[in-house]
Fold these 2 entries.
Entry 1:
Amino acid sequence: MFINPGPGTAKLVFEGKDGTKLEETIHEFEGEGVLQGQHNIDKSIASFARSCFEYALDTKQDLWFATKDTISKKYDHTFKDIFQDIYDAEYDAKFKDAGIVYFYTLIDDAVARVMKSEGGYIWACKNYDGDVMSDMVSSAFGSLAMMTSVLCSPDGYYEYEAAHGTVQRHYYKHLNGEETSTNSVATIFAWTGALRKRGELDGINELVDFADKLEKACIQTIEAGKMTKDLALITDEANPTVLNSRDFIVAIRETLDKLL
């Protein structure tokens, strides 16, 4: 971040290892202002692209990628070009064999499409877009605390987490002995996702089956009308049973016992 104290020219200077210098004017300031710079390397963008393509193949879901290359004509457009080049060279045939498609569009168009869609695809976003849009979608369709997150590397490493992070305010209430009604589904699904992947990698079918049934227990508990306050505020159920955090988890356990 650069703070400009007054009129002047902001320039970007790049010097290569061979001493060659490239200089480009970024902006002509007529007064005070602020300038933000960001960078990436092609290797990192390519790694991101391959992670997305591999995950789409692994889950057999269509892949959407969206940027704002009409505004960010160099930075965002580089992402778009690298994604397309890698797809054409390495994944076109694989996607066709799997019966899935790769789709690129502008981020604002993607938002409009997503809000009217039924889901069932992967939406690849750059970091800032992903933070904003994932929270928007989860809130519009239900509860942020229901959203899971999977981090996937091109080398095949996976990390499962609750996308909403920690609920700090509720945690402090819990430490003080106060009752909370925190939705724990995303945290549970983070565990089931990790357990299922471990079972798949190690060939432990019982572990995969347990993960499937635990997720099913969460869904059945909510469909039976037992839920935390965030879901009770938006449900179509006439008289939902609003549970605190502990009782909600206990209700899921009771449902799970019937499935095991």
Note: The chain is about 50% helix and 20% strand.
Entry 2:
Amino acid sequence: MLNKNLIEVKNQKPFIIEMMYAFPQNISGLPVYEQVGFGNRAFLHKDMWEKLQRLIPLLEKNNLRLKIKDAYRPPLAHMLLLKAVPVPGLFAVSPEASQHCHGTAVDVILCDENGNELEFQSPVDCYTPYFAKELKQGRDEEYKEFLKSACHGYAAISPAAKKNKEQLRQMMESVGLEVLPHEWWHYNLPGGKGEAYPLIDFQEKE
């Protein structure tokens, strides 16, 4: 059973569940969530879920949907990602340091009402098949440079991408979530690694 503090986010409007690490089409090239028996399911700490529920009327008002690319991350999966992609700054240095492993972080992208992703300045995690292949070969210089395009302050983006990024940020901050400055897709629950939010092992019993 899952930890009693975790709530599952269902794949129904306005949310779309597409956990990138459940499939090999991510920067590690590995379906790490499948490997640890977790799969394509999105869970959040109940306090984080309360924040996301407050987004529902905002999304509906704007004819938008929110695709969840990552949410709660099992600690074992985090360790596998660190091993597969040893690029400093991409993943937290340990499960304890990652709010994903506490259930208090979410990676998201806005979609239109039909589920089509809106334009943003980079892919989530700056993933492309090319960079996944390069990293597997131990070549990371190009990818590190590309990662700069994920920052909120990155200027070389289209007007549409800028508008969408700002709209996403405004919506997420309006419900009390904090942006991660170097990843436009990542939002945290304030204080989400404190004593009130210990590390969660998804195999814990209630």
Note: The first strand starts at residue 6 and ends at 9.
